[in-house]
Design a protein that fits this description.
Helix content is about 25%, strand content about 25%. By secondary structure, the chain is α+β, with helices and mostly antiparallel strands. The protein has two domains: about 1-240 and about 510-540, D-Maltodextrin-Binding Protein, domain 2 (3-Layer(aba) Sandwich), CATH 3.40.190.10; about 290-500, Dipeptide-binding Protein, domain 3 (Roll).
């Protein structure tokens, strides 16, 4: 049960419909099936399916705590609460015990299951279902020797070796939402079979248009406000609006058709503040690094001189100043400034790394000539048509690179095709993308370890693989931070990507949305627990001229 200080909270209200343009407002669901290992599934099912662990939202900034809860998949251990887990503890160095809450119910779903209590067998079924998928990420669960039930409401995780990401991997991560064992033999790819213990039901899905979730009246959790306990959730329904066009979703916010728009580019902010001064705002540094992947398994990018030249040819500071209007950080990937001591500012990096964020076109031309490309070369680059920012950025990148003799053949793709190109390893030698920071260790593993799905540069080095393994198995926090620093410096220096600035993003919402301060995720891209704790001031909404 959460508790809010009475000085910070108004009296909650039940009822009303919440319309959201989420961080991924342009994207439809990729899959409803956990076995597909798709990164977006928690965003689409996280109101219905719950996880063992989640963010403790009572520690958010709006309640006087230190956490903004905008990171895509990073929750420090001290900011976690048990969701389906009542408590957890280490029985010995390699044995983790998770005790489940009692009385948590799966609702009845016609043709699928009768209502019943969650138990340990559901956790085992979920783990085995995703672990046995041919689409699973290599090495993701290799630290686990076995997962077993101990009675009806305890699960034993036996480790073959310690992994510093244990809470993320199967606690609050991308691939750890618990599903009922009745799903065996059922069509997990159908949205109609999405069932879980969470605060909402998935009641309607219209492809490329909307997803609607309705209140689960039998939800187990509650919120303590002052002296009173309130059953969650407050709103009757939540609808994600899927809107491909930037102008359209900005208009939807301005006209009140959307209550919350979670991701707004800086270029639209001043106009919105002028035309719609009633909106409330929160600014946050993007949690997806932006970069051009350079396939090191193909010429010309197998040569580090070419890769460094590509970085030196682009005026990063000019992109910050002009393209982003100053609303960006020059270097914020692979580590994010919100990762605390794991992040090293650029000024603390070696000169060879700092140089990659400077503009040296003459040196770029010299390096290309040394590598055997005195006249440059022509190369294909894929970009997602769903990203207005990257579509706008491409002509600028093309102009910079043309000055050192590199000609880009731009290939825009719709998101599903764009993603499929990378996951099937059919993407072009250059690939302009955003990739979530995740957390201080995962960002290194997924981006640089051999064979990882989210390693589009195809970078592979046995020594780097070993150091990443050492990072994960290190229990001492200070020692692990030093490993993270060393790996981050070396990978920046090796330049398997063209490092691009990370922009600031804005969230806006109407003041009738209560108990909200721009929080975005309470788990890996999972806002469900946040929405469950919001309420709508219907009287204010009517007084402002909206029904």
């Amino acid at each position: 049960m959460f508790s809010l200080c009475s000085a910070l909270a108004e009296e909650p209200q039940y009822g009303g419909d919440l319309n959201v343009g989420s961080v991924y407002v342009t994207l439809s669901p990729l899959s409803w099936d956990p076995a597909d290992w798709n990164w977006k599934i928690n965003h689409d099912t996280g109101m219905v399916r719950e996880q063992l662990l989640a963010a403790d939202l009572a520690l958010s900034e709006k309640h006087g705590g230190p956490y903004p809860y905008v990171a895509d998949a990073y929750i420090p251990v001290e900011a976690l609460r048990g969701e389906l887990a009542e408590r957890w503890y280490w029985e010995d160095d390699k044995t983790l015990i998770i005790e489940l809450r009692r009385g948590v119910m799966f609702p009845a779903r016609e043709g699928l299951m009768a209502a019943r209590e969650l138990d340990a067998e559901d956790v085992l079924y979920t783990f085995n279902y995703i672990d046995q998928s041919p689409k699973r990420i290599r090495t993701y669960f290799e630290h686990l020797e076995s997962v077993e039930a101990r009675g009806s409401h305890a699960v034993v995780f036996r480790f073959s070796e310690y992994n510093a990401e244990w809470a993320y991997r199967f606690g609050y991560g991308y691939y750890s939402a618990i599903i009922p064992r009745e799903m065996a033999g059922k069509d997990a790819k159908s949205w109609r079979n999405v069932v879980g213990t969470g605060p909402f039901f998935l009641s309607r899905y219209v492809q490329s248009n909307s997803q609607t979730y309705t209140r689960n009246p039998g939800y187990w959790d509650s919120l303590q406000v002052a002296e009173r306990s309130y059953q969650l959730p407050f709103i009757d329904s939540l609808t994600y609006r899927i809107i491909k066009d930037e102008a359209t979703y900005l208009t939807a916010l301005r006209t009140g058709k959307i209550d919350i728009l979670e991701a707004i580019r800086w270029i639209a902010v001043d106009h919105l503040k002028e035309t719609t001064p009633e909106l409330k705002w929160h600014r946050w540094l993007g949690t997806s690094g932006n970069f051009i992947s350079l396939r090191v398994d193909r010429k010309p990018f197998d040569d580090i001189r070419v890769r460094r030249a590509m970085n030196l040819a682009i005026n990063q500071q000019e992109i910050v100043d002009l393209f982003y209007g100053g609303h960006a950080e020059l270097m914020a990937y692979p580590q994010h400034p919100a990762f605390g001591e794991n992040f090293q500012p650029l000024e603390e990096m070696p000169q060879s790394v700092r140089e990659l964020f400077e503009y040296h076109p003459e040196k770029a031309r010299r390096l290309l000539a040394e590598a055997g490309y005195p006249d440059g070369f022509e190369v294909d680059i894929q970009v997602c048509s769903c990203s207005a920012a990257n579509l706008d950025l491409i002509p600028l990148l093309d102009d910079y690179l043309s000055k050192v003799g590199v000609k880009l053949n731009v290939k825009p793709l719709e998101y599903a095709s764009f993603l499929s190109m990378m996951t099937s390893r059919n993407h072009t030698p250059m690939y302009l993308m955003g990739s979530g920071h995740v957390n201080p260790t995962s960002t290194l593993r997924k981006s640089f370890k051999t064979g990882q799905v989210w390693n589009p540069s195809m970078f592979s080095d046995p020594d780097v693989d070993r150091r990443i393994d050492d990072m994960h198995s290190t229990r001492d926090d200070a020692e692990r931070v030093q490993i993270i620093h060393g790996l981050t410096v070396d990978m920046l220096d090796t330049a398997p990507y063209v490092w691009l600035p990370t922009g600031y993003v804005y969230t806006a919402w109407w003041p009738w949305v209560k108990n909200y301060n721009g929080e975005l995720r309470a788990g890996a891209v999972r806002p469900g627990p946040i929405y469950a704790r919001l309420w709508i001031d219907e009287k204010m909404k009517r007084e402002m001229g909206f029904e």
